Records
---
Amino acid sequence: MIVDMKKLPQTAGLAQLSTHPSNEYAEGAQRIKSSIILRPGKGAEFHPLLGGEQFLFFEGRRPNYQTGALYFGGTDEQPFLVSVRGQLKDVLERDGEQALFEALKPDFIKWSEEEFGHEHTRRQGDIFAYPVLSEDGEPVCMFDAFQETFFESHPYYGMQSMGESRRGWHSLFGTRHLLDGDIVEVVESPRHDPRNTRVVRLLATGTIHAPDHAPLVLDTPHMLAQAVNLAPHVPPSLID
C-alpha cells in the first residue's frame, strides 16, 4: 500500500516523522534521535510496513533530476533509518512485505532456516545469529553440512576456511555492534576469483552490544552474518 505523501503518518512506532522540501543540495532522509526527516521529491512513495511500525520510503526525483534514494526505517527496538538498494522496492511491490524482509536476510541464515527451522534465528539490528549447537549440545547447524548443501545449489561460491579463535572485544562487520567474547572468521574465496578473499561470516560466543539495543547473549557457538541489500554508501547498520 502506498500512502499519499500529503497524508503521511506522524509516527512509525516510536519514531516521529516529518517532511522537508527536497532540493538538489539537501541531504537525503535523516534520523536525529527519535525524529526521522523525509525529503520527498516528484514521484515519492511511502510504503507502511508491520502495521505502520516500519516503512519503505522512496525519495522520488530531486530538482536536479537525480533519482532519490530508497530508505528503510521506523522502529525496531528504537527508531532507525537506513538506505537500502533500490531493488527492494520492486521486491515489495511484486512479492509483498514478507518477501521484503526475506530479501534482507543473508543466504546462510535463509539456508539454515530451511534446514533446521526459523525458531533458532536471533537478530540484533542488521546482525543475524544462528546456533551451531543447541543448549543440550546436539547439532543444530553444522558448518560441514552447510558446505556440502549450500555450495551444490550456489556454484558461484568457492571454498571457505576458518581462522583461529580470538578472545576480547570485536567490531562485527565494521559496524558499531561489538562482541565481547570469542570469535573466528569464516573466509570465502569465490571460484571465479580465488585471490579475492573476504570475511563472510563469524563464528562467535559471548555477548553482542550495540547502541539502542538490548545485549544479545550467545551462550553457545553461533554463526553471525550481516543483513544484505543495504546501500553500500551508507554505514551498514539498521539502527546505528
---
Amino acid sequence: MLAALVLTASVSASPPPLKTITHARSTPFCTAFEENVRRTVQGVLVNDSLFQRTEPVFLKAATDMVSGGAMVSSFDSMHAAQPDPDNASVHLDMARFEELGGTIAKNLQVINDLLNDRTRFPANAKTEDEKRLMKLRAQLLALAKKQNAELNVLLGTTDQYLFDSFANAYPTVNDATGHAKSPEAGYLSGGRLKSPGDLADASLASNGIFMNSAMGAMYRTFMQQVAQEQAAEPELARTLEEDAKSC
C-alpha cells in the first residue's frame, strides 16, 4: 500500500516501484516532507522487504529441525531414535534470522531517531503545517512500533531456540525407573510466543506439516504481527497521498 503512493527512491532492499512526484514546491512543510517523512517511509519499506525474506527461512528451519540432524537415541527401548533438532543446519537458519533482524533493528533505530528529533518535528504544533507533520509523525511512530513487534517475534525465535538448546543439552533421569531419557521440553515449545492464530502467508499456510510444527507456530505468531502492521498502512497511505499533493 505504501509503496504504491510514496516518493521514488533507490534502496538496497529493492522494494516495489514507487510513484514519482513530477513537481515540487519549496515550503518549510514540503522540505520537511521531502527530507524527513520520505526518508522515514523508505526505511519502513526496506524493513517490509527484509521481513518478507524471513518467510523461506521459517520453512527451511522447520525442515532442518526434523531432518537436518543425526539420529539421536531416545534412551528408551519403546521409542525409536529421532533426528536431532539441534544441528548445524538449524544453527545457520538462526544465524540468518539474526542477520536479517540486526539490519531491521538498525533501520528502526534510524527511523525512531528521525521521528523523535525535535529539530525535524516540532514538540508543540502551532501552525497547520506543523499539525500535519505531527499527524504524519504519529502515524509513522505507530507503524514503527508494529514493526518492532514483528522483530521481537523474529529474534525471540532465535532466543527461544538457544534457550531450548541449553535445556535439552543432556539427558535427564527418570525418577520412576531410574533410567536416562531424552528431555521432554522440546524446541520452541515452551515460550509465550507459541500462540494460536489463523493469519499466515497462503503459500505456507497451505503446508499442513509446516504449520503444525513448532517453527510453524512461531511463523503464525510472526504473521499476526505483520497483519497488524498492514492494517495500519492504508490510513497512513491516505495521509501521505493528500499531503504530497501540496508539494
---
Amino acid sequence: MQVEPAKIVPAMSRFKLKPKLKFTLYDSDQLQTYFSNFRLHCYLLLLISPIGLGISAFLFTDSFSTDSIGVGILLFLIGLFLILPWTLVPTLFLFTTTRPKTWQRKVSWGYIGALVVALANWVYYFS
C-alpha cells in the first residue's frame, strides 16, 4: 500500500500545526528491477523444488528403517519440517500470482501434481 500525499495533506490541514511533509517514494525502475529479480528467484525455486523433495523422501524412508523408535520419529518429523519449504513456498507463489479460473491456475494445480509425483518417485527410489 502506497502513501498518497494528495490524500494526506488535506486531512492534515485541519490541524493548527502544519508540518512540512516530504514523501520519498521509490523510483519505479528500482521497484521493477527488484520484483523482476524476485520473480526470477521464485521461478528458480519452482525448478529446484522437485529435487529438494528428495531430502524429505530420504528422511521419510530412513525413519522407517531405523531400529530406535525415537530416532525414527525424529527423522520423520525433520522430514515433515523440511518438506514445507519445498512445497508451500512454490505453491503459495503460484497461487498468489495467478488469478482464479484461468489457465495459469490449472497449470499451478498441475505443478502440485508434479510435486506429489516427484515425492512418490523419490520415496520409491530410496526404498
---
Amino acid sequence: DYIVIQNQSLVSTIYPNYPEILSRLNKIANNGRIGVYTLAKNKKQTLPEVLGFDEKKPIIENIITFETDYDHKVWEHVVISDKHAYEGKFSGITKSDMEFGLTFRKQNVKELTTNHRTLIISAYFLVDKPLKHCELVVSVEEEDKNIYYEVYNLQDLIKQTGKWYEKTIFLDLPKVKSHNNKIGVFIWNIKRSELYYDNFKVTIY
C-alpha cells in the first residue's frame, strides 16, 4: 500500500504534532509538493531527506557563525560576544537593552512567486537568566503588506540556564504574486531579556 502526503501538511501539521512519523515513512518519490511513501519500521532519516531536499539545491542558504565575516546584505543587528560559544570562540547576543536582535532579511525573492516554499531555521540558543518574553518571528511581505506571520516563544524552548538548546523549525511559506516581496526572520526581545545564539542558519527550498 502507498501513502500520499502533501508536503505542506507534513511540514505544518503532521510533523510538529507527530515527529515519529519520519521513522515510519519510506520515500518512493516527491515532486516538491506531494510525496509518495510506503510504511517503514524505525527508519532513521531527517525531515529534509523525507521531503527530498537532500536531492535539491536550496534557493537560499545562509549561516552566521559569528566566527568569520557574514553577508551584511541579509544579516542585521549582529552583536558578537565572547562570553559563550557553542562552537569556536564567539556567539551572537541580543542584549537586555535591545528590542530587536539578530535579523535575517531578504528582498525581491523571485522564487517565492513560482511555488510554495519550505523555510528551515536552525540555531543554538542559551541564556544565563530565564527569558521573560522573547520571540522568534518569521514574516513574509508582499507590496509592503504582511501576508504571513509566525511566532515562536523562545522561553518555551529554553528550559534551563547555562545550557545550549538546538532548535530547528520547518515552515511552509505561501506563494506570492509580486517580485516586490520580503522575507524576515528575527528575534523580538519584548521583555528585554538577554539571549545568546550560535550557528544561526536560514535555508529555503
